[in-house]
Amino acid sequence: MKALNYIAVMVWTVVGMGISGCSADYLDTTPTNQVSAGEVYGSVDNLYAALNGIHRKMVSQDLSNQGMGGEPGFIIAREAMGDDMTWDTQTWHQGYLNWSYNTNASSQYNYGIWETYYKFILNANIILENLQKLENLSADDETLAQHIRGEALCIRAWAHFQLVQYYAKPYINGQENTQPGIPYRETSETLTQIARTPVEDVYAGINADLSEAADLLNGYTATDINHYTEKVVLGLQARVALTQQRYAEAAEYARQAIETATEEGLSIMTPEELTNGFADISSETNEAMYAALTQDDQTVYFYSFYAYMSWNFNSSSIRTGIKCINQATYDKMGPNDYRRQWWDPTGTAEVPSSSYNQRVYQNRKFTARSTSDAVGDYAFMRLSEMYLIAAEAYARAGNESAAKTYLDAFVAQRDPDMTGCDLSGDALIDAIMQHRRIELWGEGFRWFDLKRLQEPIHRDGSNFNVTFCGFLDKEVDEDGWIFEIPQDETDYNPLMEKNY
Question: Residue 136, by phi and psi: left (phi above 0), alpha (psi -120 to 50) or beta?
């Protein structure tokens, strides 16, 4: 498949009309042995089934690249590109660790990211367009249609947000931000060739979609956490505003997300809950705001996040390359920080095979359900992240009192020695960012954080093997911070200029 922006691709929907769960198979736009595309989009219930299909595809095995199982696979890649995760020997994701994929326009590991996010966008746009065709809806159907529209807008905004962070220079508040971004696709028309949208306009589209979605999902309660709701929209708005350095707005969005989530019964994981292993985070904690829920009979086999990022699943990627935290980052934790349980500093804990990498600071944060089962939930948004966004944004906006309130509430469940500490200025921001690095390790934020803050990479822990990871330092002006637009895309569309 080439030039994804301009060629019709698979539409993700659920086989069997009226099915509102997300455990079924999927069908193409024109299935050969199921129902027609017209039937798929002919009712609100069927459009809701199609929406379920998109959410299910967050954990996907569409790509031929085994280690790139949907968004969790991309999360592993982003962690590898940063400065807080390392391993030895196992070559899955090594091209991200050494930055050979992001600088290669012909790499399938580059194109796979481009392709997948635009599939999300295309499918969201198809749903949005077919919602407009429905007529004479009942009051209940009209309400459901509004919720579907709100979620589809969220998906479209989120996918563009991910793409512009990969494939463009970072947004700099106070500048015009006319640097080339990525095409902002608002229709399902895929044959028209369009140029890259300036970064400023990409973010305008993202914010417009999220603003409308926030109105549509106001008060909406989903049946489970694998759907977008009001709190998730607010969380996305907080992420976007933080990336744009609109700190006062980011803080306000995060505050509202926390309040909404708390009213719904969510809470930060307690010290006792920290060792839940994340594979059952939705059932063993009240932390997850939006997550992919995967049952034991819905395995994605070796495309699973836990086949690469756990410590106990019996796969070669774990036996020979357990993911480790940067030693220098680990050492930033206080001696009584409960999160020390997330890593083994000795590297001697038992794993499925004796033929594993003996490096220290091995991950124990992510635990597969068993050594033979890589299935597990994946939390794409957690309440802890919102507390950290609120703390950082308030601090950078100059409201240190509010920043300390959110930081104290968070660290009370992580490191009681830090509660009530008297910090201000850069020291306060540094403490918040330190907690963000530790708390969100392995969850896909670090590389984006470095890019938005225009900070260099310094892999300064002694457990980095430069022969395997490729480099220890990367300045902000070096190649690789902007992914190359895939070669297939630029070859097909002369309007899609490359990065120079």
Answer: left
Say if CB 103 and CB 484 are below 8 A apart.
yes
Q: Which residue, chain included where needed, has tokens 């959410």?
A: 55
Q: What does the pLDDT read at residue 498? A: 66
- Closest to 48 (Cα-Cα) out of 10, 22, 11: 22
Tokens of 347: 């590297």
Distance CA 18, CA 142 (A): 16
The overall average pLDDT reported for the chain is: 87
Is the pLDDT at 29 greater than 70? The verdict is no
Distance, in Å, from the CA atom of 163 to the CA atom of 183, rounded to the nearest integer, reads: 9
Q: What is the pLDDT of residue 125?
A: 96
Q: What are phi and psi of 17, to 5 degrees?
A: -70, 145
The Cα–Cα gap between 248 and 169 comes to 23
Mean pLDDT (whole number) for 21-49: 54
Instruction: Report if pTM > 0.90.
Output: yes
Task: Of 500, 389, 494, 483, give the one whose Cα is nearest residue 117.
Answer: 483
CA dist 468 to 80, 99, 345, 446, Å? 12, 12, 21, 20
* H-type alpha helices, 455-500: 466-469, 487-492
| Alpha-carbon span 428 to 434, nearest angstrom | 10
Q: Which two tokens stand for residue 257?
A: 């997300």
Spatial separation of the C-alpha atoms in residues 362 and 112, rounded to whole Å: 29
d(C-alpha 466, C-alpha 301), whole Å: 31
